[in-house]
Each structure stands twice: as structure tokens, then as C-alpha cells.
Design a protein that fits this description.
501 residues; alpha/beta; Rossmann fold; Transcription Regulator spoIIAA; OB fold (Dihydrolipoamide Acetyltransferase, E2P); six-stranded mixed beta sheet; five-stranded mixed barrel; 23 strands; 34% helix
């Protein structure tokens, strides 16, 4: 009987990696590519498929079972529902026979929401033969070669360069294919010498490492050949510093990367990115402007740079080693607007997004008002923000935030937190949406995802796409063109544009 292998995608959501549909994380593709390198082509299922198709009973028929998934940042999801801890045990119990391997953020601990300390999952080792805390593709490559690698094995870049292109074909197995967003890895870790109090990147990746441009392009060419048309350079802590040296950002490296993507792919529909550090932009305004110009020459409209602001409160910034300054952040927002604010296809080419985090060291009642005032200042200065993401920190063991929590209890003031969110939505978000998406703006290729009664909701594929409600019965999975007619606080309302128009 021929041996069968399966990879279960439990979806990854980490500080610099996203894999919830329509996204596919690089870890999933690399793992599949390891098997493909040795002439084995595993089955692939998302955790949603396991649930919906009731595949639990079939899992015991496999020789190897690889489970990758978990979250280390709080989030709300539309495209899929990430792996829960109880499902890890359900998979383990359903499959006593296969060699079982787990990899994902839950090796650091598990919490269902922000504002809580993650509990250590010591039972993982009882449920799986291997719990890989190191690099998954390097581990699998050696294991399939007949060796016994350490579960904490570090990345071998040579192995990544081999298996990444070979893993491209697995996107055809994704239930959302061909409209899947391929998350592309540019680097791991964070280039800062010291890190934010809550950050898990240094715990997982043990230093900063950059992937060569050619390796990125080889993989993206292979993904394009497999039918991939949607890409995000999301697996990077700070794209402004990709290729940087002691003198600051390297615009030539960004130009080489983005130009190469267009040369090596065909039918490109989306090219977006994700994370940037506002401090880099402020400290190196000249070179950062050149980097932003290079990005805007080649990206597709509606792109976002997510700025890890976390807090505008100077005391919180210092005590959590955030490495920036409130006025610097505003200036970084101004520079991104200056370069990326030009409208293409009805929307700005590239705008900043801001992440605000609560549950940090040194917060007081004043923190809420300081954060609100700076957000309102950005609005009043006529600057655009594509989105404001407000969350509560997940506290993981071995971070400075966790060590602090051992001696001093960190407690988020629930009423103040709720009031702050309401104030931001009412006083900032609503006006920002009107500016970013004016009435009459036409948005193409809006994919319908679900409905609530007679209202159908869809989004364009991209980085943090805006949710659009349409009061017309539509087919789920279909693509439509809409005209914006109204604004909410976190979403917009559109009317369908008929094909004849």
C-alpha cells in the first residue's frame, strides 16, 4: 500500500506572518516543498475543511501528519477560523498511527484573546511525536533525508532556496485557488538591537536574517507559473530596512526586488506589503522617501504600511522600549502620505495604517487620552490613515512584558478601553473612511464572501482590504464592481455596477 502524507493548515497569524484565507503562509508552502523535493506530494487540507468536511476519521490513514497553525497576535477573521487548542488534541486523538509533527505559535503558549497571559502547552509533546520550535522546512528536509534533526533546529538558507519554489504548486490545492494571497518572506526577526516588551520575534527567530532577492524572485516566479497572481511582501518586520546597512535604508535593493517581481511574474493582480517602522522613516527621511517611491512605482493601488506605533504615550514608549517618539510617528505618517497619497484606480497608492496596543507597562488613564489626541491631530492635519487597529497585548513567557507581569499585575481598564475604541471609531475612523473612500469611488474585483440577511459583504484581495456591504443578492465567491455610496465606522456601503456600465 502506498504511503500517504498530509499537511493540515491551521492558519498562522504572527507579528510578521499571516496565513488566514485568502492568505497562504510561507511555512505551509515550504513544508509541502520539502516533501515535493523528495518526490512525495502530500494531501493538503485547511482546518476549515477538516471541520466542514468532517475529515477527522480519515486522518489516521496517513503515514505523516504535519499540523501548522496558531496565533500569537489577537485578531478577528473573515476568511477562516484559526486552529484552536482543543482541536490540536482532537487531531492527535483522531490519528494515533501517523508520525505527527506540530509547528506554530502555540509552542510559545496559548491564549484565546488579547490582554491575557498565554498558558504554556506542556501537553503538546504528549500529543505529537515532534514539536518543532525551530525552522520547519529545515527540520523536515533533514527528517525526510533519514536524519534525526533537533526540534529547535535553525534555518538553513540553502534548504529554503531549494524547497520554496518546489512548494509553489501546492497553492492549487487551496480551496480558494486561484484567488489566494501568497505571503512572501523577506526576512525573519527584527533588525533592532533591542526589542519591544511584548515582541515574540526574537524568541522564535534568534536574530535578524534577510532573504536574498534572487531567492524571493525564484519563489515568486514559481508561484506565478502555478497560477499565483496575488502577492504580499508580508513576512518582514520592517520593509523600509530590507537591504539596509549602517547608513540606513537601501532604495536600490527595494528597486531591484520590486522591478524583479514584475519581470519574473505574469498576470500580476496584487502586489502589496505590510509592516514598517515609523522610526526608520523619521530617522532616514531622504532614503526612506526613495524606498517609498520605489514601492509606489511597482505596487498595486490600495497598499498599506502597517506602523507598529503601539502607543503615543511617551512614558509607555520608554517603558516598553518601542523605540520611537510621538512627533516622529506623525512625521512618518506625513512622509508616507506625501509619497503614496496619489490616487490610482480611485484609491491612494500607499497609505499608513496604525496599530495601537493596550496592556503595556506604564499605562495610565492619560494613555487613552494621549492616544486619542494624536490620532485626532493626524486627522486634523489632513493626513490619511487607511486603518487604525486597536488591540490588547497577548503576553508570552520570556518576554519583558511577561517578566514585568510576574511582579506587577497588568490590568486593562475595560471601560476605558471600550470608551477609547468608541471614541476612535466615532471621531476618527468615520471621517478617515470618507476621505480615503469618497462617495462615488469605484472599486473593481470585489469578492463576495458572506451575507447577513439581505446584505452581502465583500472585499478586494489585498492587505487589510476594506469590508463592503451591498444590499443586493449576490453569489458568494463572485467578483463584482461597486460604487461607494455611504460610510460606516469600519466598513463602507456600495451599490452594484451592472456589467453594461
Amino acid at each position: 500500500m502506498k504511503k500517504k502524507f498530509v499537511i493540515i493548515d491551521g492558519y498562522v497569524d504572527e507579528p510578521a506572518q499571516f496565513g488566514v484565507p485568502p492568505y497562504i503562509s510561507p511555512d505551509i508552502r515550504y513544508a509541502w516543498g520539502c516533501y515535493a523535493h523528495y518526490g512525495v506530494f502530500p494531501d493538503y487540507f485547511t482546518i476549515d475543511q477538516v471541520r466542514k468536511l468532517d475529515l477527522w476519521n480519515s486522518l489516521n490513514s496517513y503515514y505523516h501528519l504535519i499540523l501548522i497553525g496558531g496565533v500569537s497576535v489577537p485578531g478577528k477573521y473573515i476568511g477562516g477560523n484559526p486552529l484552536k487548542f482543543r482541536e490540536i488534541r482532537m487531531i492527535s486523538d483522531a490519528a494515533p498511527n501517523p508520525l505527527k509533527i506540530y509547528h506554530g505559535p502555540y509552542t510559545m503558549g496559548y491564549t484565546a484573546s488579547g490582554g491575557k497571559v498565554a498558558r504554556e502547552l506542556t501537553g503538546l509533546k504528549d500529543m505529537f511525536d515532534y514539536v518543532v520550535t525551530g525552522n520547519i522546512e529545515t527540520f523536515l528536509f533533514h527528517l525526510l533525508k533519514g536524519e534525526l534533526p533537533s526540534e529547535g533546529i535553525r534555518r538553513d538558507p540553502g534548504i529554503q532556496s531549494i524547497v520554496a519554489p518546489k512548494g509553489a504548486q501546492m497553492i492549487k490545492l487551496h480551496p480558494g485557488y486561484p484567488t489566494v494571497m501568497n505571503e512572501i518572506e523577506l526576512s525573519t526577526g527584527c533588525e533592532r538591537e533591542t526589542h519591544c516588551s511584548f515582541c515574540t520575534e526574537p524568541l522564535v527567530h534568534h536574530g535578524y536574517w534577510e532573504r536574498p532577492v534572487d531567492d524571493c524572485l525564484n519563489e515568486m516566479e514559481a508561484l506565478s507559473e502555478a497560477g499565483g497572481k496575488y502577492f504580499r511582501l508580508g513576512r518582514v518586520a520592517n520593509i523600509i530596512s530590507y537591504g539596509a546597512d549602517k547608513n540606513g535604508p537601501n532604495p536600490q535593493k527595494i528597486e531591484e526586488l520590486y522591478r524583479g517581481i514584475h519581470e519574473r511574474t505574469t498576470g500580476l493582480k496584487v502586489l502589496h506589503t505590510d509592516n514598517a517602522n515609523p522610526a526608520t522613516i523619521y530617522k532616514h527621511p531622504g532614503k526612506s522617501r526613495e524606498v517609498l517611491k520605489a514601492i509606489c512605482r511597482y505596487n498595486t493601488p490600495g497598499d498599506i504600511l502597517s506602523l507598529g506605533v503601539e502607543s503615543f504615550d511617551p512614558e509607555v514608549i520608554i517603558k516598553n522600549n518601542l523605540g520611537t517618539d510621538p512627533e516622529d510617528i506623525v512625521e512618518a505618517v506625513r512622509i508616507i502620505n506625501e509619497i503614496g497619497g496619489k490616487r490610482v484606480e480611485g484609491v491612494p497608492k500607499l497609505l499608513p495604517g496604525i496599530n495601537i496596543l493596550f496592556g503595556l507597562i506604564g499605562e495610565t488613564n492619560d494613555t487613552y487620552s494621549i492616544n486619542l489626541e494624536y490620532l485626532k491631530t493626524i486627522l486634523e492635519d489632513g493626513l490619511l490613515l487607511r486603518r487604525i487597529n486597536i488591540r490588547q497585548a497577548m503576553i508570552f513567557h520570556n518576554t519583558p512584558l511577561y517578566n514585568y507581569s510576574l511582579s506587577k499585575k497588568i490590568k486593562i481598564k475595560k471601560k476605558a478601553y471600550k470608551r477609547f475604541k468608541e471614541n476612535v471609531r466615532n471621531e476618527v475612523d468615520h471621517q478617515m473612511l470618507k476621505r480615503v473612500f469618497p462617495v462615488g469611488t469605484i472599486l473593481k474585483e470585489v469578492k463576495i464572501e458572506y451575507n447577513r440577511g439581505n446584505v452581502y459583504f465583500g472585499r478586494q484581495l489585498g492587505t487589510y482590504p476594506i469590508l463592503i456591504g451591498i444590499r443586493e443578492q449576490l453569489e458568494k465567491g463572485s467578483f463584482v464592481k461597486i460604487r461607494i455610496i455611504d460610510h460606516g465606522y469600519r466598513s463602507i456601503t456600495g451599490e452594484l455596477i451592472k456589467i453594461r456600465e
